[in-house]
């Protein structure tokens, strides 16, 4: 379920006086969603405008003008218009967006509203982007929240604390910070052919190897598998 973005309309200067064609009306709580980046802005207008076309221009944060041409609905004792305003990007935490609204009807007077919309951010969660049940680091996200941050690669479902480790591939599948390598007892960079493994940050470390080509791992300088010179 998409997280809900709570917002409050803070009227800084309105022109919603009596007799105006357009008023700052909030007949229902305005809502926006940080995930789909849209803001639902409701305007109340004079009931005389029901059924007529209202022309609206919205300017978010001093940016480009967003034009609307909408039919005025019957909102009970008032006319009602709901604007679907695209915010452009997921709001960062605690942002307040100045909104300028200009509205008019054909052959009617222009009215303006100036308000500020205070937006909460999307929730900060441990999202599980790859669906393996383990979450990544906490951050602003619209994804699926889980109760842990144990996924060291949240883009790959085959990497998580419950995944089997693949030996000597240079990848830490089980998120313990280590790969599994072949033991290299005689430290000649060739691991024991019996396949004994040992966890290590890198299979290039001394005492481990990415290979299991040493048929005589107890004797330095004696390389197995016909590789190298002894
Ligand atoms: Ca994950
Ligand atoms: Ca993962
Ligand atoms: Ca591995
Ligand atoms: Ca590992």
Describe this structure in words.
0% of the residues lie in helices and 34% in strands. The protein has 230 residues and is mostly beta strands. The radius of gyration is 32 Å and the shape is rod-shaped. It is built from no helices and 15 strands. The chain has 3 domains: 113 residues, Carbohydrate binding type-21 domain (Immunoglobulin-like), CATH 2.60.40.2440; 34 residues, no CATH class; 57 residues, no CATH class. Strand 5 and strand 6 form a beta hairpin. Bound molecules: calcium ion (CA) (4 copies). The site of one calcium ion has 7 residues, from loops.
Broad shape: rod-shaped
CATH superfamily descriptor of the largest domain: Carbohydrate binding type-21 domain
Number of strands: 15
Work out the helix count. Answer: 0
Classify the fold: give the CATH topology of the largest domain.
Immunoglobulin-like
Helical proportion? under 10%
Q: What is the domain tally?
A: 3
Order of secondary-structure elements: EEEEEEEEEEEEEEE
Report strand %: 25-35%
C-alpha Rg (nearest Å): 32 Å
- State the low-pLDDT regions, or none: 1-18, 26-31, 225-230
Structural class: mainly beta
If strands are numbered along the chain, what order do they take across the biggest sheet? 1-10-9-5-6
The ligands bound in this entry are: calcium ion
Return the CATH architecture of the largest domain.
Sandwich
CATH top level of the largest domain is Mainly Beta
Cα distance, first to last residue? 64 Å
Counting copies of identical and different chains, the oligomeric state is: single chain
Instruction: Sketch the major β-sheet.
Output: 5 strands, antiparallel
Mean pLDDT rating: 79
